[in-house]
Amino acid sequence: MDLATRLTELAARTEKHREILLTEEAAKTALVMPFLQALGYDVFNPAEVVPEFTCDVGTKKGEKVDYAICEEGKVKILVECKPSTAELSINHASQLFRYFMVTDARLAILTNGAVYRFYSDIDQPNKMDSEPFFTFTMDAIKRQDLRILEKFSKANFNIDAIVEAAGNLKLESLIRKEVEKEVAEPSEEFTRLIAGRIHGGRVTSTVKENFQRLIANAFNSIVRDVVNDRLTNALNATTLPEEDEAEPATDDVIITTQEEISGYHIVQAIAAKHVDPKRVVMRDAKSYCAILLDDNNRKSLARLHFNGIAVKYVGTFSGKGEERHQIQDLTDIYKLSDRIEARIKELDG
Length: 349
Description:
By secondary structure, this protein is an alpha+beta fold. Helix content is about 40%, strand content about 20%.
């Protein structure tokens, strides 16, 4: 079972039980331990995942951090847990700050089981940053989050690569905040920069005010266009294209996940009852993963809508129309066998 599938199941559990997990211990047992398991760590091996990790710090004696993930006796990651209903803040991280300075750890996680905040020592060596470099929530995991979380898994753990990525993520977050400020209210510096490239004369106060208004309008227009494009793509995904054209494959945008590959193999196995499985081809796109007969976009057998892991759909076809079916597990695709087989007979009968 891949990471995306494990987190899908855990996200459903988090949504179902979060409100009744009122204590820290309940959140740890029901949510945090399964999360660490999803990353490949053996939570029942006390040499690998140490609960109630103690490390005396100065005059502070007997303080504990909830978990220390270790390798060969060295601490890799510190984990501090809070009740699932608690709103996380930096005030919850006092033990993490102290332990960070006296252990080998360069990564720390503050969580309530639903929200996870990842910290490192990007600003100053051996001193935990006050701001997380990465945050995600179980009820809104994105594909980009999965790529980042893979780096923290036991199989892929590389502290140097993680810290380097952490620095880039933090810079990206800071850049985003500055861009958001400019979108909301263009600064004088940014306004003069844009006006200087377009306006031929002197940038007077009147010109500046006019450009500030126009820049704000331009930003809003760009956002509207992006939203409309995404809505159009989503609506177009519900009907079969007339032309034999797939979405343009851009390596830096389209990522075929193991979950999509597994879903493809299930559809291929269903189709094998009626056609040579070599005729069943997967073609990934930005908004969905298409499974085609004879690599022909007019012969769609199914579409896997797995871009967000919280809710997944499988599209089946009759004529040119697509019907979407929500699934909880990849094995639910087998429940659609009759529809997929009927589609094969329709196309290849």
